[in-house]
Amino acid sequence: MSALASLGKLCSYNEKMKKNPLGTYNIAGFLRDCWQKKPLVLRGIAPVLADALRRDDLIDLACRDDAESRLIIGSGRRWEVRHGPFRKRDFAGLPARRWTLLVNGVDTLVPAARQLQNDFGFIPYARQDDVMVSYAAPGGGVGPHFDSYDVFLLQGAGTRRWQISNQRDLSLLEDAPLKILSRFRAQQDWRMQSGDLLYLPPHHAHHGVAISECLTWSIGMRAPTQREIGSEFLDYLQDQLQDGEVYRDPGLKPQAHRAEIGPQMQKALRRMVERIRWGDTDIDRCIGQMLSEPRQNVVFSPEPPINTQVFSDELVKRGLQLDLKTRLLFDRKLFFINGEAVSITASDTKLFRRLADERALAAGQGISHKARVLLQCWHEAGYVHFGDAPKTVVARRSPQQRSTARRKPG
Ligand SMILES: [Mn+2]
Prior knowledge:
Structural class: alpha+beta
Bound molecules: manganese (II) ion
Number of domains: 2
Strand content: 15-25%
CATH superfamily of the largest domain: Cupin
Distance between the termini: 32 Å
Shape: globular
Radius of gyration: 26 Å
Order of helices and strands: HHEHEEEHEEEEEEEHHHHEEEEHEHEH
CATH architecture of the largest domain: Sandwich
CATH topology of the largest domain: Jelly Rolls
């Protein structure tokens, strides 16, 4: 692709970033009135999604080892859950109704899903978890339930009926293989068509059933629990500890009970624990590392090293973009990429912030020596790629390519 063409694509990408995913609904108003507070339904805001993935594309994804997929069959009180990766033939014998296929982490596999997360960037990336896409046969769904996190449910192709409730009774069916509310009482009822959006705050009960076969995109949020951040921070502290200091007792005296842990020993060991120190800098660093950690099962494909001059030329000519699996965040002091903290020279901060916000750098950028060295490391690690065509792509294949693919062994 020519530099000009790739620049053009990045410009339209940036243009889309600025577009309001809530249509004419005001984002500040949404955050003030709805976010973490109450549901919202918006009609016809993203009809383009109707065609971004089809049933067979989702089945292709569910057959990959690097996708997290579940097949849920049933309704009412009878449910069955199967876990992926699947084989194509697993879908051949399914009933015509009442099943659904869910694939999580689609943002790490399909550019359109990543784009959707970018569009919802008015919620900080640090709060975003993943994009889940579900296909449901008529009558299919996962039953009435609640989630612990905020979610935006965007209707792709087809129609789904959503019933929701802010009921307090969140008790669950016993012995069910998934979380199903035992007493769901719908308070509101909608038919969501292609391009309609439903926002739900955490713990809001909901029940979605496919009217016709349909695809739904869930832009899911994340919120660390105290246990998660606490356990992460204790791990972080452990990594900071040095093995240098060893307990010593040159003044040891005879003691009456040889099995007793003596008070002198306790005191000295308490002091050793008390000498472990941390401050806000440590906590902030740990938070950044934790939030930029890639999803489970994510593996990057390293690139063979290339000549420095070739790298620089390609960078200027084609620009750069983050791998779909890469998480790049920053705070006021540091950058965090895939679980590692990196400090960036003040003069390069603007460039790296742009790369983190837009998940891409346009072609034709002037880049310092230090920035080039770091970006080349990230390129070799498979964290970033040249150009605006993501490395991990599920492209819609032509019928001819489909038959070629089928002939391949395995
Ligand atoms: Mn849900």
